[in-house]
Amino acid sequence: MRAQGVTPPGGGALFPLAVTITIQALVSLASLAAPVMAPAAARTTGLAAEMVGLFVGIAYATASLSSLVSGDMVRRWGAIRMSQVSLLLCALGLSAAATGTPAMILLAAVLIGLGYGPVTPASSHILVRTTPRHRMGLTFSLKQTGVPLGGMLAGLFLPPLIGGLGWQMAALVVAGLCVVATIVTQSIRARLDDDRDPARAISAKAPLRALQLVLTTPAIRDMGVCSFFFGAMQLCLTTFLVIYLTTAQGMGLALAGTILAVAQVAGVAGRIGWGWLSDRFIPPRRLLGLLGLAMGAAGMTFAAAGTTWPVAAFMLLAAIFGASAIGWNGVFLAEVANLAPAGQAATVSGASLFITYAGVVVGPPAFAQVVARTDSFSVAYLAIGSVMVLVGLFLILTRSGPSRRPQPI
């Protein structure tokens, strides 16, 4: 049942959807800037480009914690206010990274992680109040296109900025965009934060209760645990693709960035398409299982790729990889919000994302370790691809509790 309280312009869900997409895209751009800037930053900081895996791991470790505690904050101060805080934290993080010192780059990872965590629970809180149940999958998937849209911006526009202004000025440009968005969204806060409860207490035990709810509800627990591996795969794709293409395949930065953008475009298309399918034809759990198989197969194909492959082959493979490994989130978040008790979409989403981000924390550093120890990206892609096939089979072959069924056309 749809909650009441928000009356966006036109009385529909398009306005809050557009707002949440924009905020998600900017925060995503901020978080994905590091992997694109890593090769250029390595030349001026003395840090190996592969160390970006550690940066991403720290950022998402922080994001997992800020996501877990965000439920009460969203309810007390409002989803838009928490989104503004997220944007400012990302801006501060990028500004810290632009100093080029190792200590400030470490601080940047923490600040960006703190900013990234609350954005999805906040947007889930807005959308679950303004979206009819039979359009949950598509709407949440459309919102999640903000993540690959941010990745597209990172892949297409950051390389020219880095080439013309240097990586440090490029970081400051993205920080400026986050600040502008913070100022602009102030004008809509009253409309979308009208359900905030200033008297709501911030309980130290609330995050643990939220995590307990997720882990003791079988259907939500399975979603969360599998998202651990999905999140790891997604970040291994977006974090290492440019580095893999420039070092192992000998491509230029601009071409590698374009291929990353292809993966992100496919992720946008996948999120929309999978959301529509989950609303109409394929139950969310089964669809996520199929996506697990697809991303596993794509990872193992990357393991077999060689320098003699044509660029078109890498673009096609990146598109398949992106559609699955980037395109799964909207279906997952819609199903979690649908399974959450009434009024607890932000809380349950935040707790579920705590598990997702744990996978993101573990995945890139583990992937980097495999590459470092074997001196081979192929071994790393083969290993994580094999794991994803097993996860996909688990979701397809098992059931655990009720799940939202596709609606009749």
Automatic annotation (TrEMBL):
One Pfam family, short name? MFS_1
Task: Report the transmembrane regions from the record.
Answer: 12-34, 46-66, 165-184, 225-245, 251-274, 286-305, 311-333, 345-367, 379-397
Keywords per UniProt: Membrane, Transmembrane, Transmembrane helix
Please list the residue ranges annotated as the Major facilitator superfamily (MFS) profile domain. 13-403
User: Carries keyword Hydrolase?
Assistant: no
Q: Entry's InterPro entries? A: MFS (IPR011701), MFS-Transporter (IPR052952), MFS_dom (IPR020846), MFS_trans_sf (IPR036259)
- Which PROSITE patterns did the record assign? MFS
- The organism sits in which domain of life? Bacteria
Single GO MF annotation = transmembrane transporter activity
Q: What is this protein called?
A: MFS transporter
Instruction: Name the species this protein comes from.
Output: Xanthobacter dioxanivorans
